[in-house]
Design brief:
A hairpin with a 2-residue loop joins strand 15 and strand 16. The radius of gyration is 33 Å and the shape is elongated. 49% of the residues lie in helices and 6% in strands. It has an eight-stranded mixed sheet with strand order 3-4-6-5-7-10-13-12, sandwiched between helices. A two-stranded antiparallel sheet has the order 1-2. The chain is α/β, with parallel strands linked by helices and 832 residues long. It starts with 5 loop residues before the first helix and ends with a helix. About 15% of the residues have low confidence.
Length: 832
């Protein structure tokens, strides 16, 4: 008998393994899948290996990187001096490893998709298992059952692995140098659904259980450890390099990122009036897209459960799934377009506005086998060339060109995620459909190269680390955008750190058979990752709050509050991480005689004294947060006079009864007047002038006189306060940056302050309101502009206290220590 060549032997060994797998799949399909083990373990015995035993590696090459039971072999891998080439060291075990099934766009070297149907050679002998279930070493000693046989096998698509590299490269480049939307994140959402759908459809069509809980454990066991390490590093970098005003935000986002709710937190910050500079970048802000993916990974597999019964009866499942995906996609796209037009900053992070991108990836995965058959697609593993090879190559290049042009030719930042997101999805879809072109000049050939594979291998880690490194550098350098050289350094550092994170954390965890062998082990890895992040964030916050409160200078050494210090005080108050507590509030929720009969949206009614009190008088604060910030200035006077204070302010909505209002403020003035008519009130405080950050003008809004007269007509005295300065930049962060760099309050004043004439009108625009009267009621003007801007200068720091907590609100500490004494004195002098 003719001796078989090495190539024929290897082919027949692989064929024998395919037959064994097919027989095992048939056995599993015939057996009921009702046991807990089938449900959690995807029908595999926990002791069985996930993949066939790898072939011995040729001498001088890295061992195949299949799943490993423990990290010892990996840790014992050859050092650089022991490897045959630099590429072996750079690539390590990643290059030869391909996951059997890829569930998402971050699966390292696992672009498994579509179907590869190699025709078996009927005449060739095939190895068979012996009684022990092993394959004989001599494949020529066995035979193959007669008749044509075909087997669907997932195909590793190297060009899609390279597409990951392109998408991630665009994300990093646009973040570092351009500050625009690249469409790369949309490609990852699209590919995630594409791979996930292929995974579950193959399970359904092969008769295996869906094993959804097992999928969740497998997926998050793989994704969370690298994410947790990144979050911990970001927390450490925040403590070391970023200003204290960002600390609470980063702590919040660390927890939200770990539980895949970062996008929901960012939506909340966008609509939360009291959130500090929601648009400011934090080192964890990029986790929003991972949160969208994580939420989809939880929900999306459940859609395939809808067709399980149909699959078990042997009926086709792709058309019903296409209908389901189309319905979800249409609803989500409609919402995305409408939401993007009305509230783009919220829609950008909204999972519901992004699900249509997932649906698009799923629809392509469901339709691709038919498209491949119609167009004569082939894989490189097959000997036959694909049909329409030149057209495929051109289609692939068109997709890459379209993807590269997104954001460069079109500035689409303000239009995502509406219909414009179809552009990067169409580009990615073109590369997927084009597939293997068989042309050396095809884009698939470029995307299948080793450099593209290397970036694809580290794509998940690179996405994790590049943004924190960039944010820390920009904060350190004071730049809004990185330059050419420092941006290149950021990118290079990100690649190095991503490679380390992949090799040290991602790959060992992902390939560990020990973690995969029992569900509780994967769950432990998930729980440990969460515990580390929650413990670090919570522990840091607890430690900060146990620190002694900063105190002013000793008695007799206080810094004058009407001067700017030319030497840095030992302590500036409040600390940046304390800003969340600088919003003024009253200790009691409205109750008893002061409880409103009807609750109004966005108004949290508060009162100074408890419900059973019998105060001598009641003062009600109405209008926007610029009225509310004067509450601490009223409290000393109220305590002297045994007065109750009630806060009815509504953030962002001044009191202008009788004037035309927008949708947000509609009904507020009428609700306030109704409350005043039903409660025994003596005085109302409202800020009536309006300053501007852009023009520097201070105006009396139209309808202010009508609103004040409506109060006077009810016999209520009115305290009319003057507005506080508004700024185009966050004054606390501006001053904090100067001081953190070793500057003094005088330096901060020079960098951030302005002349009072640029913030206030020469005369108080509310002065004419003082002439208005009512039955036993009058107007008292309270103008504290000379205290806020002493000597004609509006400074961010006076004495040892920060004046502003953001771009237009005073710190509670400044109001209590500086404005309260002046307010008490002036109101008393005015006969109030």
């Amino acid at each position: 008998m003719r001796a078989l060549s090495e190539e024929e032997t290897a082919r027949q060994v692989a064929l024998a393994r395919a037959i064994a797998e097919e027989q095992e799949a048939a056995r599993r399909a015939a057996a009921p899948a009702d046991s807990l083990e089938d449900w959690t373990q995807d029908g595999e015995p926990v002791s069985a290996p996930v993949d066939p035993a790898p072939e011995p590696a040729p001498a001088g090459e890295a061992p195949p990187a299949g799943p490993i039971a423990d990290p010892t072999p990996w840790l014992a891998a050859a050092l650089p001096s022991q490897t045959s080439t630099l590429d072996d060291w750079l690539q390590g075990p990643l290059e030869s490893y391909a996951e059997r099934e890829a569930e998402d766009a971050w699966s390292t070297a696992g672009s498994v998709a579509g179907t590869w149907r190699p025709q078996r050679d009927q005449a060739a002998p095939a190895p068979a298992e012996d009684a022990a279930g092993t394959i004989p070493s001599d494949p020529s000693a066995v035979t193959v059952p007669a008749g044509p046989q075909r087997r669907d096998r997932p195909a590793f698509r190297a060009e899609l692995h390279g597409l990951r590299a392109v998408a991630l490269g665009l994300v990093a480049v646009y973040h570092i140098w351009l500050g625009r939307v690249s469409g790369g994140v949309d490609v990852f959402l699209f590919l995630s659904a594409f791979f996930l759908t292929g995974t579950f459809v193959r399970r359904l069509e092969s008769g295996r259980p869906l094993a959804i809980p097992r999928y969740w454990l497998h997926t998050f066991k793989r994704l969370l450890p690298p994410a947790a390490v990144t979050i911990l590093l970001a927390l450490a970098a925040t403590a070391a390099f970023l200003p204290a005003s960002l600390w609470p935000t980063v702590m919040q986002q660390a927890v939200a990122s770990a539980v895949y709710l970062q996008n929901a937190l960012l939506v909340l910050l966008q609509v939360d009036y009291q959130a500090r500079d929601a648009g400011a970048a934090s080192p964890l802000q990029h986790f929003w897209s991972l949160s969208v993916q994580g939420q989809a990974f939880v929900v999306w597999p459940l859609l395939f459960a809808l067709v399980v019964r149909r699959a078990r009866r042997g009926r086709p499942i792709r058309r019903p799934l296409l209908a389901i995906m189309a319905l979800i996609g249409a609803a989500s796209l409609t919402w995305s377009v409408l939401s993007t037009q009305s509230q783009q900053q919220v829609a950008y992070f909204d999972t519901a506005a992004r699900l249509w991108e997932f649906a698009a990836g799923s629809m392509l995965a469901l339709a691709l086998p038919a498209l491949d058959r119609w167009t004569g697609a082939r894989r490189p593993e097959e000997e036959r060339a694909p049909r329409l090879g030149a057209l495929r190559a051109l289609t692939g290049w068109a997709g890459i060109a379209l993807l590269l042009a997104t954001g460069i030719v079109l500035d689409v930042s303000s239009q995502f995620p509406g219909w414009i997101a179809m552009v990067p999805l169409a580009a990615a879809g073109a590369v997927v459909v084009a597939g293997h072109s068989g042309r050396r000049w095809g884009v698939d050939a470029l995307l299948s190269t080793r450099p593209a594979a290397f970036v694809g291998d580290i794509s998940y880690a690179l996405y994790l680390v590049h943004w924190p490194i960039l944010v820390v550098w920009l904060h350190h350098s004071g730049q809004e955008r990185a330059g050419l050289l420092d941006g290149a350094a950021v990118l290079a550092g990100s690649v190095v750190l991503a490679w380390i994170l992949t090799r040290a954390i991602d790959a060992p965890v992902r390939r560990s058979r020990w973690l995969e062998a029992r569900p509780w082990r994967a769950l432990t890895a998930i729980a440990l990752s969460l515990a580390l992040v929650l413990g670090a964030s919570g522990g840091w916050w607890t430690w900060l709050n146990r620190q002694p409160e900063p105190v002013p200078a000793a008695q007799g050494q206080e810094l004058p509050t009407d001067e700017v210090a030319t030497e840095a005080p030992a302590v500036l108050r409040p600390a940046g991480w304390q800003l969340g507590g600088q919003w003024p509030s009253l200790p009691e929720s409205c109750s008893g005689a002061w409880a409103p009969s009807v609750v109004f949206r966005n108004v949290h009614c508060e009162q100074l004294l408890p419900a059973g009190s019998e105060p001598a008088e009641t003062i009600v604060v109405v209008g926007s947060s610029h009225s509310r910030q004067y509450i601490p200035a009223l409290i000393p006077l109220a305590e002297e006079r045994d007065a109750q204070i009630v806060n009815l302010s509504m953030d962002g909505c001044p009191f202008l009864a009788g004037a035309e209002r927008d949708a947000y403020c509609a009904g507020y003035d009428e609700w306030v007047l109704s409350y005043l008519d039903s409660v025994d009130v003596d005085t109302v405080l409202a800020t009536m002038t309006l300053t501007s950050a852009d023009s520097g003008e201070e105006l009396l809004p139209t309808g202010a006189d009508t609103a004040v007269q409506a109060l006077l007509d009810r016999g209520l005295d009115v305290i009319v306060t003057r507005d506080t300065p508004r700024w185009s930049a966050d004054q606390f962060q501006c001053a904090e940056s100067v001081v953190d760099d070793g500057g003094t309050p005088a330096d901060a004043d020079a960098a951030c302050g302005a002349e009072a004439s640029a913030k206030f009108a020469a005369e108080n625009p509310a002065a004419p309101l003082a002439a208005l009267t009512g039955p036993d009621a009058s107007v008292t003007l309270l103008d504290l502009s000379d205290q806020i801007c002493p000597d004609g200068r509006c400074s961010p720091v006076l004495g040892d206290v920060y004046v502003y907590m953001d771009d237009d609100h005073l710190t509670r500490l400044f109001v209590e220590e500086t404005l309260a004494p002046a307010a008490t004195e002036r109101l008393t002098a005015a006969g109030f």
